[in-house]
Protein 1
Amino acid sequence: MKRVLLKLSGEALAGDKKTGFDEATCMGVARQVKQLVDDGIQVAVVTGGGNFWRGRTSETIDRVKADQIGMLATVMNCIYVSDIFRYAGMKTEVFTPFVCGAFTALFSKDAALAALEEGKVIFFAGGTGHPYFSTDTGAVLRAIEIEADAMLLAKAIDGIYDSDPKVNPSAKKYDEISIQEIIDKKLMAVDLTASIMCLENKMPMLVFGLNEENSIVETMTGTFSGTKVTV
Ligand code: UDP
């Protein structure tokens, strides 16, 4: 794999704190991504926003407005994580699908690929720019657009299970599963829109736990212990 898109869930960024950022977790991500970049791999990053806000959980305000707040939460996450990456010695650029003043650059495929060629780690903040979508869907969309070889899905949980392991202690983790099976079994490891886009555009995924030691690097070097999603 030469070019990958790494999706970090917001919840995973918060570590044990559940909200906000856990600096040690983010530094751990930066150290691992630097290793990939030093090995010549092009890395694009999408962060979720669940450590700040999720549009669908608000019962009071309008869904469109709630989702706009969610998208802005992902912008804050990307600004934070990209600066941690800079601290760790990488060059970075944050793209958004809407104008954020001088904080970010406006996304285009050409600009994103040019930044990757310059050796930058690029961040896609703000999801798709539209409500009623998730950052998983935004991540798959961008992975397809930049012609990534695969999507690496770093989650607070270490793979895809046949049921929720927090609820069912005998839940079984899959080593490998097809995206069609995820859709048929309604496993919700990624949301349905994202799953269908992966299926239609043949984008494979590797799902693993962000909190597992060295999990991002291991995903790329073959000693992977998460779930491989085939297309
Ligand atoms: N969101 C949106 N459109 C997008 C991507 C995200 O409206 O294209 C909003 C939505 O409200 C979502 C929130 O941003 O709940 C945070 O994203 P998500 O829940 O996917 O974050 P994660 O669960 O990965 O941390």
Protein 2
Amino acid sequence: MPNAHLKTTPEVAEALNTGGAVVALESTIITHGMPYPHNVETALAVEADVRAQGAIPATIAVMGGRLRAGLTHNEIDELGQRGEEAIKVSRRDLPFVIDRGGVGGTTVAATMIVSAIAGISVFATGGIGGVHRGAGSSFDISADLQELARTDVTVVCAGIKSILDIGLTLEYLETHGVPVVGFGTDMLPAFYTRESPFGVDYQIDSAVEVSRIIGLRRSLGLGGGMVVANPIPKDASMDAAVIDAAIEQALGEADAQGIVGKETTPFLLGRIVEITGDASLTANIALVRNNAVVAAQIASARSAT
Ligand code: PSU
Ligand code: MN
């Protein structure tokens, strides 16, 4: 049954109806994750990367009071130009943004929800939200983690960014039975770098194997999602000391300025880009594109079964 609040492009609808490969793409990365016009250029490049693998991209957002799966280039440009004027839409925000006819970029959590409603199994992004450093007193834990616990969508990302407490994020995912898979690695990548002090639950080296695990999770009725952590390409990875210093500085500024709630992650991401003078932006673009390719391969493998 199609959902009355969902508008799907004919191309995405056709692919879904015929069992074709579709990859969902999030849009908070467009509105709140990168500056204009890099956000729009990246979103369009990522769509092209998905197509180059023979899959159909479905950028997810809320526009004109509808959940959207698939956007035109003009709509992606509109989201990018609005930037932080658009609403950052997570699970709790969805009915309000629909009711008010607003425009919103969907977080990983909201993108998973819309993907599940649309029937899309695989989703590519840069990084997921997680347990923030200092969460013991701030209680700042991204709704993305609870969504992974409940919604069956596989999220391809570049690991966990060290603006977060990586260890606590892994503990949270473990508690909720969310597998963290390393794509071609036994080490959890840390977004800007290929390495972290943490391991993954399982290393998987092929899209076909990820697809098999998705199928097994479904036939067991396990529910919830899965994280596929795909390391940033070697030639794009950053110097750990440079990025760590920028992250420490951004965290200190957020604390000094009393930034809390949904503003925290966009503030940290924006400051890191400013402090590193675009080096982190270049890395971010490369890793998102790399994730889109892997997600498209997984979606194609699913489609072939
Ligand atoms: N991490 C990134 N880039 C991003 C985000 C996280 O490296 O763009 C965005 C994603 O949309 C993610 C959201 O779902 O931030 C998490 O926000 P919060 O921590 O407020 O839950
Ligand atoms: Mn938060």
